[in-house]
Design a protein that fits this description.
This protein has 11 helices and no strands. The protein is mainly alpha-helical. The chain has a single domain, classed as Rhopdopsin 7-helix transmembrane proteins (Up-down Bundle), CATH 1.20.1070. It is elongated, with a radius of gyration of 22 Å. The chain starts with 7 loop residues before the first helix and ends in a 7-residue tail after the last helix.
Amino acid sequence: MENCTENNAVQNGTVLFQVIVYIPVLSLGIPLNTVAFWIFCCRLKRWTETRVYMINLVIADSFLLFALPFLIYFTKYNHPIDKLCSTIQRIYFTNMPMSILIITLIAIDRYIAIKFPLKAKTLRSPLKSASICGLLWIMLITYSYLQPNFDEEKEQFCFRKESIDPNYLSLFSTIFGFFVPLAIVIFCSVQVVSCLKKKMATSPHETKLIQKAIYIVSVNLCVFIVCFAPLYITLLLRFAVDVSGACSLLSGVRTCIRICACLANSNCCLDVFCYYFAAKEFQEFPSLFPTCISMRSKMNHSKESQLPTDQDMTQTRSCAP
């Protein structure tokens, strides 16, 4: 095993950048996520699929916010790997993937509601959404305990991989924890936007609502890509550096990972603004989308007027899909 030491000046500069980014993220994220949790748990009357997903997303974001001060402290003071370090690492490495997967579930849920409205009532329900989220929590928590994120025999400090031994489990997590969900989110979002553009509006108000829905889905997709893609691309680069044994490149790659992680972690604050739009549109959209049904369905099914409205469509969370 080979270790590549890191320049102290670079490390101190990175820590300063983290502090500059995370202070406003924490200052805004903690109160806003608290308010969002209260709204989605207590203020909304009807339980929907998207409401279930958003509550789980608030929980994941809140745990991420909890871990950020520890991350800064551990990085600055070269904290050794101990029980506290292991606990914070498990919290951090459980809740970021959980946020990504919930965003993916919301994108899939919207896609089903819009593209398959005749089947949506049987495929979707708040109970099914809660069950899926519960299963994901169990899987990710179990994985965080089983996965040797930082092997104490190889690594010395918390939240820092100094060895250049390739971590193939990390490669697996990167591909299936982000790039596969990314492909799903892009596909679902593009399909939803395409379907909404084809919908014939019957009034200027309805046209405005459709445009607003398209805008929200598009912005959420862009935020998802901008926040998470740089981090996971640099993680792939880190794996390539480890495989090649290019120790001279490691310091720069480490710095890029930490900077990109700041951008990814800021998503738990940006999500709150998506919560705001979701709650705001909750009252406006309920009667708008029975719909985006194929022309053949329109001709053959007069009972479509009884289709479940897609209230969830407008609760386009994800600050990502």
